[in-house]
Amino acid sequence: MKKDCPSVSRLMGMLIDEIYENETEKIRRILKANFTGNALQEFCQEAQMALYVGENDGKIVAFAYGWLFHNVCTLYWIYCINKYRAKGVTKDLLQYLEDDLVKQEVYKIEMYVYAEHLRFLDFCSKLGFKKGILIRKSMFGIKIRKLYKYIGDHEQAEKERKIKIMGEAGQGIKLLSFTLASILSQLGYEVSLNLEYDSAVRSGNISSDLIYSEKKIENPIIDEADILIKFTQYREWFPARKLVIDESLCPTKELTCEIKSIKGTAYGFADVAISKFGSKIFINMIALGRILRYLGINIMLLNIKDILPPVSVDKNLAAIKFGFQYRDDI
Q1: For residues 178 and 194, what is the distance between their CA atoms, to the nearest angstrom?
Q2: In a 10 Å sphere around its CB, with 0-12 CB exposed, 13-18 middle and 19+ buried, how is residue 30 labelled?
Q3: Could you tell me if 124 and 137 lie in one domain?
Q4: Are 127 and 93 in contact (CB under 8 A)?
């Protein structure tokens, strides 16, 4: 529940200190900057946030915090105060979470776990979680292990996510598409990317169909998108279910600019790219950061800097962080 966020913030700090006790103080400060205090409060305002708590005599002693997208729950953090461990509190909390998610037609729970936390990995295995990919180098150089568990009517669930990106030549559509595809591939998904150009490459339109899936992709062409990223008002509308990003609709200086429409929520990035990074060419990377947040993909899981081209790599990375609302060491 969102009302529990302030209480969870303190436990989140305790979790980070405990789990990452063998890492540097800088890493712990960055994690706290992004997941406690005001940062956690911002996450708690998002409709996709999932927060479950366990109580003892009215006091919160455990929590599970994560993100919902496309009938998948990605758990970022799970924690129980030491005093209440080995008493079934975390097990009961996760069982309640699973039962509630099944009611919401969620078919999978996944999490990315600090790979050195062997005791927790063993605990999750006993609860039915299976090991996925091993990320050998996160943003902090830390190994991360993916865990997952299918729940509910998972065999009938739609396991493909479809992203349509539309814009004009010169807006960085190709870089955005390839970077997003690379990130999804490194997280263990099957990925298909198709780019379509007008004949006038330098001034024409460009679009991409990006599909990522837990199974083999049969059709690489998108008829209806889960997410539409639309950078120009001159392109015809494309059917989409979830989210629309259209820089031209919202030319303000604030990333928080929102326009509600029957197609979703529109975010504008043009002026902020200029004011923060000196050029509109960074719109695509700001948008990429916002999309990763929307999908529930924590940018700290991967060393995105290694994925980006060497030209303007630091500014591109900063723009992704800004779109994600990532807080550097502060």
Answers
A1: 10
A2: buried
A3: yes
A4: no
This prediction has a pTM of: 0.88
| Residues 118, 267 within the same domain | no
234: domain CATH number?
3.40.920.10
Residue 145: count other Cβ atoms within 10 Å of its Cβ: 20
| Other CB atoms within 10 Å distance of the CB of residue 104 | 11
Check residue 326 and report its DSSP letter.
-
Cα–Cα distance between 34 and 140 in angstroms, integer? Answer: 14
Which of 42-46, 175-179, 185-189, 270-274 has the least mean pLDDT?
270-274
Answer yes or no: do 96 and 200 share one domain. no
Same domain flag for 145 and 212? no
User: How many alpha carbons fall within 13 Å on the CB side of residue 216?
Assistant: 1
Which of these ranges, 74-88, 98-112, 244-258, has the smallest mean pLDDT? Answer: 244-258
The number of domains in the chain is 2
CB-CB contact of 231 with 248 (8 Å):
yes
Task: Give tens-digit pLDDT for 297-323.
Answer: 999 999 999 999 998 999 999 999 998
DSSP codes joined into one string, 159-209: -EEEEEEEEETTS-HHHHHHHHHHHHHHTT-EEEEEEEE-S-TTTSEEEEE
